[in-house]
Amino acid sequence: MKKVEYDVIVVGAGISGLLIASELSNNHSVLVIEKESNIPTNKYWLTNKKSVKNNPELSNCIDSSYDHMNFIAYDGAKFKCLGDYILWDTIKLLGKLKTDISNNGSKVLTNYQFYSYRYNQSSISITANAEEFSSKLLIDCMGFASPIIYAKNLIDIYGYYYLNGAVLKLKKEIDPIGLSNISLSKSPKYLEVFPKKNNTAYVVLIQPEKSISKNTTIKQEFNFLVSKSSLSNYFVPEEDKTKSLFGLIPVGKLKTQSLDRIYLFGEAGQMNPGATATCLTQLFYSYKEIALELSKRIRANKLSIDNLTIENPSFTKLNKRFHLNLFKNILDWNSDDFKSLILQMNNMDNKLVNDVIFGEIDFQIVVKWKNIKNLLSNKNYFVLKPLLKSLLT
Fold first, then answer.
1. Same domain, yes or no, for 270 and 237?
2. pTM above 0.85?
């Protein structure tokens, strides 16, 4: 079996894997392994404007920007959230990162299935297909599909968010939709719509579930919404599978950030407890700083589990706990619960809503009595319940 050596092996060529690999490849030899035959393009990302300021070299990968997005209940109750939002072009962003990695002399190998690893005091080796690759450090960017996470029992799972959608052509202009519960239900599904520059839109239906269901109807319901509901006035349904959007995002809690010579990053590293907007925004804030810390440890060969405990400097533990508790709560919501959220959001400051979305709550400000009193007077349990639970645990 052929053995090839690198400084770093990154498993998973999604956005988190390509981001950390592109940065590390400036100073190290990096190999990226991806099981799919092409770089996956089945997701899309909305971030805030601040994330662009930290990464001006990626600004050509922006598709659109918005100054608002809507949250809509089944009966039409609506909250228009004001903010500075950035929609990224998935193909451009992933393509640029892959090109940067190659230009730095590192490699991205697709259609390679990772299935085992072993390590010693000086290196870690992985097996992918019929080949063995060796490095000083393995970075797991496989998300919650990672066999390492489950084989080592590194996570507690509380529920899941199914995603199904497509890039659809638009018949006419449509406002950005953060979440819309169109169909009245005990277990509601939520539609996201983010229009692009080329007269198309990312359109996705999200279904919260407490367990994995083999009988999910999310695909059929998505097809109904875009072809037969009132929304069909906006979309041209397509059967082009290359434009499909899909995913399964568990709501979970990691027990550790690392193992000996293994660092968990991105979804696998609990950067994303349930929201892709939070995930990429926080990745953009932190990946360069995390890469710098990893680089120091690679050079010093200090890659034990203790040395690899590198926390995201921008996504605080309180914000992590808040997001986890929030997305756990949503798993139990019905349509009226979501409607109550919409009504409560209309009494909230836009900044607080955006801080919730992007994981940037300043708890020192929020916990001041006048702010708690305001939340109580407006019966804003959407924020209060996960907030109090986060502070008390």
1. no
2. yes
